[in-house]
Design goal:
By secondary structure, the protein is mainly α. It has a domain at 46-178: Alpha Horseshoe (Serine Threonine Protein Phosphatase 5, Tetratricopeptide repeat), CATH 1.25.40. It has helices at 14-33, 50-57, 61-74, 90-103, 109-117, 124-140, 142-158, 163-176, 182-185, 187-194, 198-210, 217-231, and strands at residues 77-78, 81-82. Helix 6 runs antiparallel to helix 7. The protein is 65% helix and 2% strand. It has a two-stranded antiparallel ribbon with strand order 1-2. The N and C termini lie far apart (114 Å).
Length: 234
């Protein structure tokens, strides 16, 4: 069988070269005009209803609560995109945290996330949503959840610079959480002193000392020194 001879490139008609170059140029321009694929963030869905979650837990609500917590924590890192906390739907985040607490009321972790993680954003509205959530959950179990409202006091004063809100939270601890340590139940007194309500702070502190509720000698001495300083106007 005779081998077919290949024609040299120079034998290709100019018109064919022109068409090939035109097609190649158009293809390059078309690819250049296409926008690069951009990863988009999925919206945080509504958590399942409490009844559905209990059924899905198969008698292990604490285990399901942990899985939901992991899902929520990982939600800000999706394939190809990292979502800043300040761009999350915080109302939806609080729904997830509340659903987790419904499954496992003994867990402290959802309140830790609200008070110490999701509250650390430069957005006062979102911070207030988290602190409101902490306050609502504190009301449901004050003696076991007081520490997160105490943290909300600190965030209110030093991050939001809202002394009135901090004072409200501190008073709630003193009023509703008898199991809280003395320092937590006394926070409202020292806030009053710090914001210039010296007379009110003196009356409350003096009454606290006279009530005999403080039995620790070191704490008694500390409070007496504070009261003396208030009276002397220091």
């Amino acid at each position: 069988m005779k081998r077919r001879e290949e024609r040299p490139l120079a034998a290709v008609p100019r018109a064919v070269w022109f068409v090939l170059c035109a097609v190649l140029s158009l293809q390059i321009l078309w690819h250049a005009s296409l926008s690069r694929p951009v990863a988009s963030a999925d919206a945080l869905p509504t958590p399942p209803r409490a009844g559905a979650l209990r059924l899905a837990s198969l008698g292990e609500p604490a285990a399901l609560a942990q899985l939901m917590t992991l899902y929520l924590q990982a939600f800000d890192n999706q394939p190809g995109v990292s979502i800043p906390f300040s761009e999350l739907d915080y109302a939806r985040v609080t729904e997830w945290l509340a659903a987790i607490l419904e499954l496992d009321p003994a867990s402290q972790y959802p309140l830790l996330l609200a008070a110490q993680v999701y509250s650390q954003v430069p957005d006062a509205a979102r911070v207030r949503l988290m602190l409101d959530f902490v306050e609502r959950q504190f009301m449901r179990d004050p003696n076991r959840r007081w520490r997160w409202l105490a943290h909300a006091v600190i965030v209110s004063r030093h991050q939001l610079h809202d002394d009135a809100l901090a004072l409200r939270y501190a008073r709630e601890i003193a009023r509703r959480a008898p199991a809280a340590p003395d320092w937590a139940k006394q926070m409202h007194i020292f806030i009053l002193a710090d914001i210039g309500e010296i007379e009110s702070a003196r009356i409350l502190l003096g009454g606290l000392i006279e009530s005999g509720q403080i039995t620790d000698l070191h704490e008694q001495r500390f409070l007496l020194e504070r009261l003396k300083a208030m009276k002397s106007g220091e």
